[in-house]
Design a protein that fits this description.
It is a single chain. By secondary structure, the chain is α/β, with parallel strands linked by helices. It has a single domain (2-274), classed as 3-Layer(aba) Sandwich (Rossmann fold), CATH 3.40.50.1820. The chain is built from nine helices and nine strands. It has helices at residues 7-14, 23-28, 44-49, 105-122, 140-150, 153-156, 179-184, 224-237, 256-274; strands spanning 2-5, 31-38, 51-57, 63-69, 91-95, 128-138, 165-171, 210-215, 243-248. It has a nine-stranded mixed sheet, sandwiched between helices. The chain is globular. The protein starts with a strand and ends with a helix.
Length: 275
Amino acid sequence: MKNFIFLFAFLSISSQSIYAQSENEEQKTKYSFEENISYLKGNEYVNKRCVLDIYFPESNEKLSTLIYFHGGGLKRGNKYIPEYLKEKGIIVVTVNYRFYPEVSVKEIISDGAAAVKWVHDNISDYGGTQDKIFLSGHSAGGYIISMLGLDASYLENEGISPNIIAGLIPLSGHTITHMTAREEIGIGPIQPTIDKMAPLYHVKENTPPYIMITGDRELELLGRYEENAYMHRMMKISGNKNTELYELQGYGHMMVYPAIPILLRKIKEISNKKD
């Protein structure tokens, strides 16, 4: 069911502690930060870009983990942790990856798969558990996680499967073929295309929970809401019961911070079902 979220609702929701602990408990919890951990070895460019940061509570609990991919059109950008994700009782992993045209879009998605594999294999060292790994990302980052969760080949090449993902929560991500993947084959940015490089191509009944969040359809980038709405409809038609769509009215493409309350609420809801 499509959900319309209004500005006043976000202002009230954002003031609450949606995920987990009371304020007193969070004040007692110490958080650590490790940066530039290599998840893929290779040439100088691989070693420079294929690194991740981990922000984690100093706790022995079996915590939920959010792997977050930055945006930038698959051509630019840098890993960062959105401020409102800090001190929320979860582990946050933020990932750098290589860019087009230095590498192909398929290689960029493969970088994402390698990062997920690294987290899956190592997150227990930071208090996390393998059955509570969530993927999110904004714009290009949202596209990357959708491809990882829907086209099984990328994670299978790493010896794992999309079944290890507890939830996919893209923020204003492409569901048609990414504009940079279209550029690779000589198609312009406003020519819609659906091929194997489109999450829409991989619509299916059984997927991890798939929660799409976009900005206002009248303010979003190049029909981004509409392509997500079509994805939502086709997933429903396929019999998929794990998909939701949220439209943040009053916000354009840069809608990360107003989306975070929904992101955290969904992580909590899904994680609680696994306890």
